[in-house]
Amino acid sequence: MSGHLAKSCYRIPNLTSGTYYLGIEAILSPRGAAAAKEGIAVPSGHSGPTVSLTVSPSSVVPGATVTITGRVSTPLSPRPAHTNVCFDGCVDGLHYDGTSVHWISSTTFQTSFVTPSGPWLERYPVRLLLPKAGSYPVAIQCLEVHQACGLGHAEGSTTLTFAHSVKAAMPRLTLAASKVLPGEMTPVKGTIPLTNIIGDNHPFVFEFDVIDQPPTKAIAKGAYQLPQTKPGTDTVLLGPVKFRVTTPLTYQSISLKGATNIQPSADPSIVTERGTNGVALTCSGSSGDQANAMRLLSNGHITVINTTDVATLLEQKEVPPSYLADNEPCSDLAALHTSTGKTLIAASYAIAIPNQAPDFAYLPVISTNDGATWAKVPSPSGVTDASFAGLHASASGIHAYFAVPHHTVIAETTNNGSSWTQGSLRCPRLGPCIRFSPIADLANCAMNGAQEPVLVSKNEGRSFTQSSWPSSVNACGPNELFSVHGTEYLIDPQSSYPLRRSTDGGVNWRVVSDIPTPPGVNPPGTSSLGQTSWGQATLVLPGSGDLLSIGSGIGSSLLVPHSRQWCRIPTTIIPKNVGAATTGEHSLYFVTYASSTTFTSIPLTSLHCAS
Questions:
Q1: Which position among 27, 203, 250, 367 has the lowest Cβ density within 10 Å, counted as fewest Cβ atoms?
Q2: Burial of 131 (0-12, 13-18, 19+ CB in 10 A)
């Protein structure tokens, strides 16, 4: 309980070149009279039962664990499982919130805490204290939880003695290097004052903060006040250290011209047909299409791929048709133009699985004749249908992925669907052997997203390992891997590092800095520094290397190589209401949503800025 940082690291935000200050952010919430001034109904006395306390041992060295024994006059029901411990005062002292309570009789309980062996902050006024020999009050609050019970006075108190003083380090952080790069993980050492401890047996989680001006308003040694974010609340920066960010790799210093080998992340809404030019498919049906239909776009002509017999197929495979969601479009989609002139199409559909968690799964189906008939993709031996996790088309065939504990099983057809064999993960056709995992974690996209690992092979695809950083991308939005003359790039618009580059096959990645923020993306708040996540679909255009940002409802924009500003694309070229998009070798394919759904394509050469 010294406030010493051991094995702490901090990843540098996507900052521009300049001087910054890194510290630990702490929020000193109001207590006592200060809380009452903010309209909080703080109890005038204690809010719970009167408690008599003793502490054992009663004299310790700083940093020792002590046990508090408390007694109440009458049994409590229910018996509290936690309480708050106050060291050197409940209003202005150090809080230990939520320490565990053990009842040894109906009216006697015990709790324990570790005394501070390093500096701590006290309130009213804010000041820094060091562990010195002498007596300190030890108290408890919130044995019974009531409104604002942790903001007022003690429910019971006793005295603890520090037998001698400890020479504690003064608050100050240090970085392993004074000059750092955006995205670099740098070790942080030093000591910060304790402000509030959460419970017992919990590791500390510090919140780092970066400011771009030297802190000047010192309120205690090593503690500086930051602008208030809430009345009555002091936000402080502890132990700030100066450092400098350099950005040798900027968007203006590179060129993405010649981008090739573009790999989208999992579950694209639109796929281009491997082996052809100008053909794409989408699961997004139109209101006039039959249930569960998909659409194929070729040379501007839409063909509806009828999948009405998929439900019959599933019923034949002992999946009750009532489990198939009504009018639910396909999920995964893969297509390959075969030597027979037909299109090999694979897709998956959601089915419900009652009395299981999760209560749904996806079953993959395939058509070898442009959708005239469908068959279920066979699961590998010993693998259940519910383990299906994704589809992918390569130059050699269609691959179906099944997630089993600790690894992935792959079924693939390389003979136009005539038979299926067990396959393995493969390197991309061109460029370094870096790829997205075919399987993303199941998650709630509205809450935490779904993580899709980034995989790297150092032995030409015989084995893959997960990249150390970035280890994964958010599969709830589009991401892309692509190559430019042997150098690999990652577009990850849902992170604060939207473009990264690797020159060693994905072992190490560096952030491409100074990328302008696309139109429609909110800039960082006044209290935040660095690049924010774009949250917009961002694609690289093959050949030209232009970046295309598609903001649903706000229009699309282009960022040409070396540029410092995005330019708007006329809505006569790309409408505002684009819901999904992908690139082919020479075309951009997209789906728009309005009164009806439209699937269309335009030549990449037609994309230009508004005059």
A1: 203
A2: buried
- Using CA atoms, how far apart are residues 313 and 374, in angstroms rounded to an integer? 7
Task: List, for residues 268-308, the tens digit of each pLDDT value.
Answer: 678 886 656 667 888 865 545 555 568 888 877 888 887 77
Residues 6+ apart with CB under 8 A from 56: 66, 67, 69
Cα 235–Cα 236–Cα 242 angle in degrees, nearest 5? 135
Joined tokens for residue 438: 């075919």
- Return the pLDDT at 490: 96
Helices (H) then strands (E): counts for the chain: 2, 49
Q: Which residues pair with 107 in a beta bridge?
A: none
Q: Residues 6 or more apart from 459 whose CB is under 8 A from it?
A: none
**Within a 10 A sphere around the Cβ of 407, how many other Cβ atoms?**
8
* Cis peptide upstream of residue 57 (ω within 30 degrees of 0): yes
> What pLDDT, in 10s, does the model give residues 349-381?
877 777 776 677 888 999 988 888 888 899 998
In angstroms, what is the C-alpha Rg of the chain?
Answer: 31
3-state secondary structure 543-574: CCCCEEEEECCCEEEEECCCCCCCEECCCCCC
In order of 300, 327, 492, 527, the CA distances from 579 in angstroms are 19, 19, 18, 32
Nearest to 303 by CA among 353, 380, 367: 367
Q: What is d(CA 590, CA 604) in angstroms, rounded to the nearest whole number?
A: 12
Where b means 16+ CB within 10 Å and e means fewer, 56-71 reads eeeebebbeebebbbe
209, 61, 85, 94: which is closest to 155 by C-alpha? Answer: 85
Q: Any residues with CB less than 8 A from the CB of 18 and at least 6 apart, and which?
A: 212, 244, 245
The span from the CA of 219 to the CA of 126, in Å, is 6
Q: What is the pLDDT of residues 411-432, one digit of tens each?
A: 999 998 899 999 999 888 888 8
Inter-residue contact 454 to 467 (CB < 8 Å): yes
Q: Compute the distance between CA of residue 481 and CA of residue 483 in angstroms, rounded to an integer.
A: 7
pLDDT at 126: 84
Check if the beta carbon of residue 192 is closer than 8 Å to that of residue 238.
yes
Distance (Å, rounded) from C-alpha 557 to C-alpha 548?
6
